Amino acid sequence: MAEILQKTYTPKLSPAVAERETARLQEYVLKNKILDRDYKYYFFSTFGIYAAYVLTLYLVAISTSYSVVVLLAILFGIVATQIAGLMHDASHLAMFKSQKMNYMFAGLFSITLGGNYRHWIDKHSQHHDHPNRIDSDSDLAVPFSFTTEHYLAQTGYMKWLRRYQAWAYLPMCGFLTYAMQFDQNIVQLHKHKFHPLDLLISCSSTFLWYVMPFLLFGAIKAIIFIPIASFITGIYMANIFATNHKGMPQLSNGTEMSNLEQQIITTRNVRQGVLTDFIYLCLNYQIEHHLYRECPRNKLKLLVPYLKDLCVRTGIPYTVQTPWQTYKSIFKDLSHTAQNGQKELKGK
């Protein structure tokens, strides 16, 4: 189960050692030009993904079989998540040297997804700055509990569903697309007082995701296509991001620790490989990504040998699991949290 480390963990690095190790890491990164942009990689990635995007929509439009439409909607959900990966990288300034170019492309990618990158990056930056830190990491504001404290504090529908959270996890992930679109296009838009650029992005993205299918495919195919594509996108996206931090140690706000150590111990990598790197959008190198969020995704693997050696030298745990192990860990932590939480409730 994810633990609140203030109670159980003693940091391995003193401030002086952390500063020295961070400087050595930075020297290694600069020496090996790991942060240099890779325009060729992103050009071919973007071209290939959007070619698949257009082809999928075309095949849905000409298809006369509703079964084929279902299969194409599943494929579209996968393609949409690959586009989300491009938006993620551009929002982190990993694609271009120019911030303006990165944000312009991030906007175009987010419109394709029915969302607004400007609202997403605000919350996502909080996560990067304070990973798994209670009351600071926006990504901890999810319906599922990985600590008994969070479990006991559940309200609303999750108060009744929490004991079954391990079984509800996967199907509920399918609604992530709707939740993100609602938050970015309605809740955050209202909070930002309907800024003209936000309004343009939100209206355009909503049109592309929810109106365009009716114009291209007709009502019946659109009604089949939209919910299936949204559900698959939600499951795919959730299981890329959840495997990185869910079930990993959580920090209370009173825990003092260097940024270097905090980023490593709250994060897990998924074992690398050609297929794994593609499926996980290279976010399976999550430890490396958290330390250098502006690093082009195809170069994150170059950081692995150095960071593994750093962790061996300093005694910091460097967590790597197979995809199956990550899902097993998440399911196990959700189950154990529910069991312990129910015992606490019965004891009251």
Summarize the structure.
With 348 residues, this protein is mainly α. The chain has helices spanning 15-31, 39-62, 66-91, 99-113, 117-129, 148-152, 157-161, 165-173, 176-191, 196-217, 219-245, 259-265, 274-279, 286-291, 304-314, 323-347, and strands at residues 268-270, 319-321.
Structure, explained:
The longest helix is centred in the middle third of the chain and has 27 residues, at 219-245. The mean pLDDT is 91. The chain has helices at residues 15-31, 39-62, 66-91, 99-113, 117-129, 148-152, 157-161, 165-173, 176-191, 196-217, 219-245, 259-265, 274-279, 286-291, 304-314, 323-347, and strands at residues 268-270, 319-321. Helix 8 packs across helix 16 and helix 11 (219-245) crosses helix 16. It has a two-stranded parallel sheet. The protein is built from 16 helices and two strands. By secondary structure, it is mostly helical. The chain is globular.
How many helical elements?
Answer: 16
From the spread of the alpha carbons, the general shape counts as globular
Alpha carbon gap, first and last residue: 22 Å
Class by SSE composition: mainly alpha
Low-confidence stretches: none
Radius of gyration: 21 Å
Residue fraction in strands: under 5%
Beta-strand segment tally = 2
Percentage of residues in helical conformation: 55-70%
Please name the defining characteristics of this protein.
single chain, 348 residues, mainly alpha, two-stranded parallel sheet, 16 helices, 67% helix, globular
